[in-house]
Amino acid sequence: MSRIGKLPVTIPTQVTVTVNDNNMLVKGPKGQLSMPTSSEIAIDINENTITLNPTNLSPKTKKAFGMYRALIANMIKGVTIGFEKKLELQGVGYRSQVQGRSLILNVGYSHQVTIAAPEGITLAVEGNTNVSVSGIDKQVVGQVAANIRAVRPPEPYKGKGIRYQGEYVRKKAGKAGK
After folding, report:
1. Nearest alpha-carbon partner for 50 in 37, 31, 63, 32
2. Domain annotation covers residue 34
3. Sequence-separated (6 or more) residues with CB below 8 Å from residue 45
4. Domain shared by 38 and 54, yes or no
5. Where does the pLDDT of residue 65 fall: very low under 50, low under 70, confident under 90, or very high at 90 and above?
6. Which of 121, 126, 148, 160 has the largest CB neighbor count within 10 A?
7. Which of 55, 80, 105 is the last residue of a domain?
8. Residue 121 forms beta bridges with which residues?
9. Which of 100, 93, 102 is nearest to 128 (CA)?
C-alpha cells in the first residue's frame, strides 16, 4: 500500500473542503478547485485533517491511493499559496511581452508566436527574457509552461531556446576542424 496515501492532509483555517456524491470541492482565498473522486477510496474529513482509506485492496485501488492524497494536497496548496513556473529565454534577440491575456514570443522565427493564457492562469514577463506562469491548478500551470517551452526548446550546441529557470542543458561538442 502507498506510504504517501497513509499520511493525513492538514486543512488550513481559511480553506473549506466538501465532498459530495463523487466530487470534492476545495475553496480558499485564491479560488476554488474541484475534482472527481473514486468510490474505491473513502475520504474522511475531520476538523482540520483529511485521511484516505482504500475500500478494497485491488491493485487498481492501491495505485490510486497515493495519487488521490497527492492531488488533494496539491489542491489545498493551490488555493492557499498557488503554483508558479519560471522560464528563461536565451538567445540573441529573443524576447517576450504580455499583451492582454496573451504572451508574445520573438524567438528567432520569421513571425511572432502568440500563446493565449487559459482561464485562471496569469502570465508575467520580467526583463523581456523571464516569463512567469502562475495559477492555482498545478496541472494547468505545468502544462502552460510546457507549451511555452515547446515553442523553442533549448538546442544542444549553443543552448539557445526557452528553458525552465535553473534547468541545465548539456552541450555537445561542435564539428571538429582540420
Report:
1. 37
2. yes
3. 11, 17, 19
4. yes
5. confident
6. 148
7. 80
8. 135
9. 93
Q: What are phi and psi of 61, to 5 degrees?
A: -70, -40
**What does pTM read for this prediction?**
0.89
Tally of structural domains, the chain: 2
pLDDT digits (tens, 9 = 90+) for 74-131: 999 999 999 999 999 999 999 999 999 999 999 999 999 999 999 999 999 999 999 9
Cell, residue 110: 520569421
Q: How confident is the model at residue 34 (pLDDT cuts 50, 70, 90)?
A: very high
Find the angle CA(59)-CA(62)-CA(67) to the nearest 5 degrees: 130
Same structural domain, 154 and 110: yes
Domain enclosing residue 110, as ranges: 83-164
Residue 33, beta-bridge partner list: 26
Residue 114 DSSP one-character state: E
